[in-house]
């Protein structure tokens, strides 16, 4: 058993230790257990662990003392702490000393699994881990559907067959296209991307197929098209369903004959190009409407697959958050440690219509604007939480939860009206105090008005 799959769980409570070790083993790891620090160090001397998960409340030692002693044994050791009596001071101190992360009991199993897998993310033999990653193109995921797609594209990468990738905007279609190219024998030749929606028909034709000198006004010299420039490599036709019908027939001929006719050219030019097409539209619906050629669809649809939207990949949210925090820490020279639980919960409640691209923008903004070590929900500056009166960086007052116990709906209503009273009716500030979106607050108030 290699270090990559070895975990040491240090927990005094027998029931918790047994339950958690069984859960982690179900994730595919080999777990050794220890009931205190002495027991733990005896096991560390005989086994090399890839990760240690330790309770902060062990007999005879504190979390910081345990971490210091573990680091004395191995300065590169990865330690994740769990606390039944959490405090911000302890969490900050442990993280400053190099702890991987800090969880509170009861442990969120989904989040713990993501952090556990992240701990093994950078091992050399990444192909045996839960994540899949290439040296050039990172596709960060623990989602079974995405992993199946990665297996598929790895199998077909070396073929010359056309690929059709469907998916909503922001799901990573171009990322998958680059992954295919980089894992193919064509990876030493160009990868060229063309956005079919960004250019009018006349310019797109010239961009794709090239033109001869004098072919049209302004054509002062011969220009090779993207097909010629991508010769030997891969050409990505992004948003293929936006291509004009006239050009679709010319593209079909290129795919069939592997020859390109430049605009104004007398003889065709032979090309060896692997074509990958993407679309965020329902391509069959486009065919029915007469917007897309059915014969071109079948020519492109040799290897089809669809990337699921982020809202169907909840398990990837935590991973992507950490990935983008690390990315923009490096780019912008920041040292943000991560997100609070409230911030993560806020992200998990979003529909993410813009998918991964939307999430990346949110995290980049939060990394730049937060004044804290951990990004809080208010640092996300989401559209639903803002109006024209919202000031970036404004602090919200603490809310006094002095509401008498009662039925949940009654308590909820009292909290909402108390928050509105406290903010003089400002819905944006009241929503921030309550930790909900302005839209949710508005819906609740409409509901109360209907029941009056």
Describe the structure.
With 452 residues, the protein is an alpha/beta fold. It is 42% helix and 13% strand. The protein contains 18 helices and 16 strands. It has helices at residues 14-26, 37-44, 63-73, 88-96, 109-119, 144-156, 173-182, 201-209, 226-229, 245-257, 283-288, 294-300, 315-332, 341-348, 355-369, 408-422, 427-434, 438-450; strands at residues 6-10, 30-34, 51-55, 79-83, 101-104, 132-133, 138-139, 163-166, 191-195, 234-238, 259-260, 269-270, 274-279, 303-306, 338-339, 374-375. The strands form 5 sheets. A 5-stranded parallel β-sheet has the order 2-1-3-4-5, sandwiched between helices. The protein has a 5-stranded parallel β-sheet with strand order 9-10-13-8-14. Helix 4 links the parallel strand 4 (79-83) and strand 5. Helix 17 (427-434) packs across helix 18. Residues 122-135 and 386-401 have low confidence and may be disordered.
Secondary-structure map with pairings?
Layout (H helix, E strand, L loop, with lengths): L5 E5 L3 H13 L3 E5 L2 H8 L6 E5 L7 H11 L5 E5 L4 H9 L4 E4 L4 H11 L12 E2 L4 E2 L4 H13 L6 E4 L6 H10 L8 E5 L5 H9 L16 H4 L4 E5 L6 H13 L1 E2 L8 E2 L3 E6 L3 H6 L5 H7 L2 E4 L8 H18 L5 E2 L1 H8 L6 H15 L4 E2 L32 H15 L4 H8 L3 H13 L2
Helix pairs in contact: 5-13, 13-15, 16-17, 17-18
Key words describing this protein structure:
single chain, alpha/beta, 5-stranded parallel beta sheet, globular
Work out the helicity level. 40-55%
Terminus-to-terminus distance: 66 Å
Which residues sit in consecutive blocks of at least 5 with pLDDT less than 50? Answer: 122-135, 386-401
Shape: globular
- Strand order, main sheet: write it out: 2-1-3-4-5
Mean pLDDT: 82
Largest sheet: 5 strands, parallel
- The strand count comes to 16
Strand content: 5-15%
Rg for CA atoms: 28 Å
Q: Give the structural class.
A: alpha/beta
Please report the number of helical segments: 18
């Amino acid at each position: 058993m290699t270090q990559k799959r070895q975990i040491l769980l240090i927990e005094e409570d027998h029931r918790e230790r047994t339950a958690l070790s069984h859960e982690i083993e179900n994730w595919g790891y080999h777990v050794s257990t220890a009931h205190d620090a002495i027991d733990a160090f005896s096991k560390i001397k005989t086994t090399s662990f890839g990760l240690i998960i330790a309770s902060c409340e062990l007999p005879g030692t504190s979390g910081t003392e345990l971490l210091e002693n573990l680091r004395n044994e191995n300065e590169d050791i990865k330690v994740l702490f769990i606390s039944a009596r959490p405090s911000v001071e302890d969490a900050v101190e442990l993280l400053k000393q190099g702890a991987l992360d800090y969880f509170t009991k009861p442990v969120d199993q989904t989040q713990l699994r993501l952090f556990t897998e992240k701990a093994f993310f950078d091992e050399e033999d990444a192909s045996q881990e839960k994540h899949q990653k290439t040296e050039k193109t990172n596709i960060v995921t623990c989602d079974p559907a995405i992993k199946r797609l990665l297996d598929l594209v790895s199998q077909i990468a070396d073929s010359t067959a056309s690929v059709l990738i469907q998916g909503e905007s922001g799901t990573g279609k171009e990322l998958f296209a680059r992954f295919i190219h980089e894992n193919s024998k064509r990876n030493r030749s160009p990868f060229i991307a063309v956005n079919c929606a960004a250019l009018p028909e006349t310019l797109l034709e010239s961009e794709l197929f090239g033109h001869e000198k004098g072919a049209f006004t302004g054509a002062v010299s011969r220009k090779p098209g993207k097909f010629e420039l991508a010769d030997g490599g891969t050409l990505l036709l992004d948003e293929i369903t936006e291509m004009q019908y006239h050009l679709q027939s010319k593209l079909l001929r290129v795919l069939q004959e592997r020859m390109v006719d430049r605009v104004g050219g007398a003889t065709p030019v032979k090309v060896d190009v692997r074509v990958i097409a993407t679309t965020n539209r329902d391509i069959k619906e486009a065919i029915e409407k007469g917007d897309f050629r059915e014969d071109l669809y079948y020519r492109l649809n040799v290897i089809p697959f669809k990337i699921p939207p982020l809202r169907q990949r909840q398990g990837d949210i935590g991973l992507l958050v950490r990935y983008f925090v690390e990315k923009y820490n490096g780019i912008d020279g920041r040292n943000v440690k991560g997100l609070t639980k409230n911030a993560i919960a806020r992200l998990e409640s979003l529909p993410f219509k813009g998918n991964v691209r939307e999430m990346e923008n949110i995290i980049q903004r939060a990394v730049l604007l937060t004044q804290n070590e951990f990004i809080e929900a208010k640092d996300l500056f989401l559209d639903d939480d803002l109006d024209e009166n919202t000031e970036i960086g404004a602090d919200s007052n603490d809310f006094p939860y002095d509401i008498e116990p009662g039925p949940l709906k009654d308590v909820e209503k009292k909290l909402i009206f108390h928050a509105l009273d406290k903010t003089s009716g400002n819905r944006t500030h009241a929503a921030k105090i309550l930790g909900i979106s302005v839209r949710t607050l508005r819906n609740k108030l409409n509901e109360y008005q209907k029941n009056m």
